[in-house]
Design a protein that fits this description.
- Two copies of one chain form a homodimer.
- By secondary structure, chain A is of the alpha+beta class.
- Chain A is about 35% helix and about 25% strand.
- In chain A, a hairpin with a 5-residue loop joins strand 3 and strand 4.
- The longest helix of chain A has 19 residues.
- Chain A is globular, with a radius of gyration of 23 Å.
- At the A-B interface, strand 10, helix 7, strand 11, strand 12 and strand 13 of A face strand 10, helix 7, strand 11, strand 12 and strand 13 of B.
């Protein structure tokens, strides 16, 4: 019963097969691929002795009732991005099923009730919204979001009904949950780089993103003297250069990415009319995100002499700290089990950041080979899955038994 | 007979109508639009008392035989870019016809023969090649270029034959020509900005162009620490920033443009895999183009620590000086006529840069309103056309009568 990874790896492959849409790996919410995965997961939960049920938006729960009304919730999301992989989300669900199943067999009825959850729509895999499942559990999903449309024009409300879930009344927020625990692949290369098996997440970064448009004046590249130009390209370049210099000062305390640069018209012999860039700045500490806002405005003031600069902020989410009691327990456990480990900040968003707003929440990371995620090449080694499951199981035992 | 602009403006409108292809203004070489323009120009030349003929690639010549075998050639190109205007090229042909016609009526047979030429394919309006007509006259067109294909897959050779021109033998280069004179719109805003009617061109810039690829490594924007990134965007930004700092040092001696920036994959939350940029550097002095080459390689060496940088040079043409005797005559004439004028460097390419390799060559610029060219909005004021024609006429008189 202690070789968890064998069962989990087999289950990963079995559930993975349900995500194939034509030639693409893509499990979008409320699609046939999602229905097939739910069916497989439902069976796994029942085999583990759980009572299963769905809530109004189609989150799948497997429950082992405890002696008191408090509930420890564990799991992750079941959707994938387009051309995604088998591990992101699903490994957290399967590890939770395995841990709870194993504890139940070993120890019988828990003190607190335990639920494993397979959450829907974390990735914006079909609808513009994300964290749909966790937001519903927390009572943060708004009725008007049910009007959001997918690419085919079907509303979220229709899709939920169409998939057979009831949505006449959204949850006001569950009050029985005391803890949420999520295991997830790292989605970065840091653990592999530092040869660590377990990451204990202290915080999920805040996100400060947006677009900057540099509006110049299109002109002939050969006949417009340097002094008469309103060329947005060197201005955007200096902006990016200086922003990056600022970001590098703080090294591991933040990340700063310009991932998209567009320009019009984009002919080699024409001075651009405008350039637009995106910025994506993340930090576990609010003070760095505040400073990012300041630095963007300072750069705008310094560089807008010949070119208009407009900054549009599209997301400004604060960092979320995870439960410190849970972190202490996890630290104690990894030392007991003698796993190599490191405290981590999650640079990616997770359902845990929603859950943490209502419930004591903790996350366990396991490494992704080559740091790859959101790709069909996602892979986590069996030995790391085993380590993750041992810690998950031990942690749930501490919380619920 | 001295109101030249009235006839020229009317002729500009008449020839202009021949360039309409569906709803687009576009006179590509050897098309029905080109044939219609040739027909109108042929009539104008005959009305002006010229003998007309075509050479093997379809350059249209109007000739007034002089007393000796030397020939003064004047004119410009008759093709336009797609969505081009009525003035670029055509104004030079019509001004030449008008000047020669006027001189012929006033002064009778010239000492040297005079030819007006309506050159084909300067703009790469249909075939990848440019300066086709002038290169043929100079004997620089190579047989193998006749195999070049247009977008429909027709070869240049076929298109020339199809348009009714003979191409069994290309010119080895005419030896009777002593001078070439071309009037052209400025294609920039400098003359208008400085309120000048006539530009006397001293040189046509050399062109140093190419592409630079910055190859990094795609990764997650949230989970990859700054120190583990191979992000090509800040490197490309610093490259552009420093290149522009260098270029601005020399102000009016060169221009430097990054007109195209592409990136893959271009998602706001993904570190780019690669960035490619174009560079377009022009100067009338070779030393600046040589220095440009050095600075690109220096920047590559300074910045390729985490990202591979590859520089691909696509064009490295030397600057061309125009005929200094001609420049002195032109300067004397603008002073006599009391036109506001300035010495100029042409930042754009012209047939004159080809002709100057074989014959004494000079160029006269007239202003474009708002510096616009390669656009249906091209416009030059009648008073500036009149001034340009007066100088052209006086200059041809000095050269040929």
């Amino acid at each position: 019963m202690n070789n968890h990874s064998e069962w989990i790896v087999q289950a990963i492959e079995t559930v993975g097969k349900t995500a194939l849409r034509d030639t693409e790996y893509w499990r979008a919410t409320y699609t046939p691929q999602d229905k097939d995965a739910v069916s497989v997961l439902n069976n796994y939960m029942k085999e583990a002795g759980m009572e299963t049920y769905f809530d109004a938006v189609g989150n799948l729960f497997g429950r082992i009732p405890g002696r008191c009304s408090d509930t420890v919730l564990c799991g992750s999301h079941r959707d994938t991005v387009r051309q995604g992989g088998k591990y992101d989300g699903m490994l957290g669900i399967l590890t939770a099923i395995r841990s709870v199943s194993s504890l139940n067999k070993e120890l019988g009825q828990p003190e607190k009730s335990i639920e494993v959850v397979a959450l829907c729509e974390e990735e914006s895999s079909r609808f513009p919204t994300s964290y749909l499942g966790s937001r519903h559990i927390c009572g943060l999903l708004k009725e008007e979001e049910l009007l959001d449309l997918d690419d085919s024009g079907m509303s979220l409300g229709e899709a939920i009904r169409d998939a057979g879930y009831y949505y006449g009344q959204l949850s006001n927020g569950r009050t029985d949950i005391t803890n949420f625990v999520e295991l997830h692949i790292e989605q970065g290369g840091l653990m592999e780089y530092e040869k660590k098996q377990i990451g204990i997440v202290s915080a999920i970064v805040g996100l400060f993103t947006g677009e900057i448009v540099f509006k110049g004046q299109q002109n002939h590249a050969g006949t417009t003297p340097m002094r008469l130009r309103k060329d947005p390209v060197p201005v955007a370049a200096e902006f990016i250069y200086r922003l990056n210099l600022w970001a590098k000062k703080y090294q591991d305390n933040l990340v700063c990415t310009v991932g998209k640069i567009d320009r019009k018209p984009g002919n080699s012999n024409v001075i651009c009319d405008d350039v637009s860039i995106t910025f994506d700045i993340r930090s576990a500490e609010q003070k760095y995100l505040d400073e990012a806002n300041t630095i963007l405005n300072d750069l705008k003031k310094q560089l807008d002499e010949h070119v208009d600069i407009a900054i549009d902020i599209t997301c400004n989410e604060s960092p979320v700290s995870l439960d410190s009691d849970g972190i202490h327990i996890l630290e104690k456990l990894v030392k007991e089990y003698d796993y190599s480990w490191k405290p981590m900040v999650s640079g990616a968003g997770h359902d845990s950041q929603i859950m943490a707003q209502k419930y004591k929440t903790n996350m366990i990371f396991v490494p992704s080979v080559n740091g790859i995620s959101h790709s069909t090449k996602e892979f986590t080694k069996a030995e790391d899955i085993q380590a993750g499951c041992e810690i998950m199981k031990a942690f749930i035992k501490e919380l619920a038994w």
